[in-house]
Amino acid sequence: MARKVLIVEDEANIAELLHLYLEKEGFETAVAPDGGKGVELFRSFRPDLVLLDIMLPVMDGWSVLKKIRETDKTPVIMLTAKGETEDKVNGLEGGADDYIVKPFEMKEVLARIHAVLRRFGVEEESGGEKRLSFDKLVINLDSYELLVDGKRVDTPPKELELLFHLAASPNRVFTRNQLLDEVWGFDYFGDSRTVDVHIKRLREKLEGVSDAWSLKTVWGVGYKFEVVNS
């Protein structure tokens, strides 16, 4: 069955180019010319991946991404003419899975799409453990739930994936670049602030819950999920 890609782009020539190229490569596509239509089509078309422009009429890309992330973890690649670090950080913090700056080569778009779909496919098909349990903490990637002291805590997908990645290798130190590569799945051009922001938000949810584990900063290196050996 062909993978489905939703293109949310108001520039008709870019949308048509993406549509034609992806259809030629074997994808099934749908095109939305504004953010409102993008949300509607996301619900009816049920894509495997979304290419989402930021500057859109009716509802901008950030708002569309937020709507998608309220109910779904379908991968989203942001498209924008802006290349500033702040936009990249905002996109990743909001739950985007990759980021492409216009003007772009179609081969790059295709490579990014395949990389993101492969990452999600491996995650969905792998038989590895997707549920980790510690004292007063359960991280479940099957249901994308975080239980803290028995209570469900709302957590964005990328925060949960980052926590799971750290906790799956207790006491191992990860550099920021390693986490960007292994959790986000691509080289984020050395912009590591998004990792710090995600760690800060996780700490707000987890601080003081248990003495058996903690999220630790290893100064000058990165982060680790420290487990106290009893």
UniProtKB/TrEMBL annotation:
CDD domains: REC_OmpR, trans_reg_C
Domain Response regulatory: 4-117
SUPFAM superfamilies (alphabetical): CheY-like
One Gene Ontology term, aspect cellular component: protein-DNA complex
Phosphoprotein in keyword set: yes
Organism (species): Lawsonibacter faecis
A Pfam family of this chain: Response_reg
The UniProt record lists the keyword DNA repair: no
Modified residues (4-aspartylphosphate): D53
DNA-binding region: 129-227
Function: May play the central regulatory role in sporulation. It may be an element of the effector pathway responsible for the activation of sporulation genes in response to nutritional stress. Spo0A may act in concert with spo0H (a sigma factor) to control the expression of some genes that are critical to the sporulation process.
PANTHER family in the cross-refs: DNA-BINDING DUAL MASTER TRANSCRIPTIONAL REGULATOR RPAA (PTHR48111:SF21), REGULATOR OF RPOS (PTHR48111)
Gene Ontology BP, a term: regulation of DNA-templated transcription
Start and end residues of each OmpR/PhoB-type domain: 129-227
Alphabetic keyword roster: DNA-binding, Phosphoprotein, Transcription, Transcription regulation, Two-component regulatory system
One term of GO molecular function: phosphorelay response regulator activity
Protein name in the entry: Stage 0 sporulation protein A homolog
